[in-house]
Design goal:
The chain is built from nine helices and nine strands. By secondary structure, the chain is of the alpha/beta class. It has a six-stranded mixed sheet with strand order 3-2-1-4-6-5. The longest helix is centred in the last third of the chain and has 19 residues.
C-alpha cells in the first residue's frame, strides 16, 4: 500500500512529477479525462489495492485551502497507510500549515517539483520492529547479513522471492506493495556486537541506506539497543 500520495489541485502541473512514484489524485481537466484507458489502468494496477489514479470532479471553490484539507479524509479512506501528502496547486502559507495540522499533517522538507510536502508525525504512528542479533552467525559479513535478512523479512512478512541485498531493501521498504508490514516503522536491532569490526561495517552500510531513504521522505528509522 502507498505511504505517499500526490494531490494535484491545479490544471498546470505535469503529472509526470508523480507517475510511477505514488498514487495521484488530480483535479479533472479535459486533457486528464482523455488519458488513454490502458495508461490509467496501469497506474491502478501498480498500486492495487490502493487506487492509482483518481480524478477529482469537485471544483476548488472560494477557499482552495479548506478544499484541500477537506479531501484528506477521502485520501485516508482509500490509502490506509498514508503518511505523506505531496500537494500541488497551492502556495505555501501559514494558514495552509495550520489547516493541514488540524488534519494531523505537518510541513516536510522534501521537494518534488513545485509541490508542498505534508507528513504525519513519525513518532506518533511508527511501529517498532525489534530484531534480536544475539544468535546471528559471526563467521563473516555474508553470514551475519543473511541472518539479518531472515529476521527482517520475518518481521515485515516479506515474500520468499525478496532479494537479499541492499538494493532490494531500497525498493521494498519505501516502494510498498511487497511486504505485509509497511512503513512507517522503526528498525531496532538488539544485541548486535558492535565491537566486532565486521558487524560494525555491515551496520554502517545498512545505516547509509536508511539515511538515504529518510532523505527522500521515507518514514523509517534505525537504532541499536542492548
Amino acid at each position: 500500500m502507498a505511504w505517499q500520495v500526490a494531490l494535484v489541485l491545479d490544471s498546470q502541473t505535469n503529472l509526470n512529477v508523480a507517475i510511477g512514484q505514488m498514487p495521484i489524485w488530480a483535479l479533472t481537466t479535459p486533457e486528464r479525462r482523455a488519458y488513454p484507458r490502458d495508461e490509467r489502468d496501469s497506474w491502478n494496477s501498480m498500486w492495487h489495492p490502493d487506487p492509482g489514479f483518481t480524478l477529482i470532479n469537485s471544483p476548488l471553490g472560494a477557499d482552495p485551502v479548506d478544499h484541500a484539507a477537506s479531501l484528506i479524509p477521502t485520501l485516508e479512506e482509500h490509502h490506509t497507510s498514508l503518511h505523506c501528502v505531496r500537494l500541488y496547486g497551492l502556495s505555501a502559507s501559514a494558514r495552509l500549515d495550520a489547516v493541514m495540522a488540524e488534519k494531523g499533517f505537518y510541513p516536510g522538507k522534501m521537494e518534488r517539483g513545485n509541490g508542498l510536502t505534508f507528513m504525519r508525525s513519525f513518532d506518533q504512528f511508527a511501529r517498532d520492529l525489534v530484531l534480536d542479533a544475539s544468535g546471528w552467525n559471526l563467521k563473516n559479513d555474508w553470514y551475519w547479513m543473511q541472518d539479518f535478512y531472515s529476521a527482517f523479512f520475518l518481521a515485515v512478512g516479506a515474500p520468499e522471492w525478496h532479494g537479499r541485498n541492499l538494493d532490494a531493501l531500497d525498493d521494498s521498504i519505501c516502494g510498498g506493495g511487497i511486504n505485509k508490514i509497511e512503513i512507517p516503522y522503526r528498525i531496532i536491532i538488539r544485541n548486535a556486537p558492535t565491537d566486532n569490526k565486521m558487524v560494525k561495517k555491515v551496520l554502517e552500510d545498512f545505516s547509509d541506506l536508511i539515511h538515504h531513504l529518510q532523505a527522500t521522505g521515507c518514514p523509517v528509522s534505525l537504532s541499536l539497543a542492548d
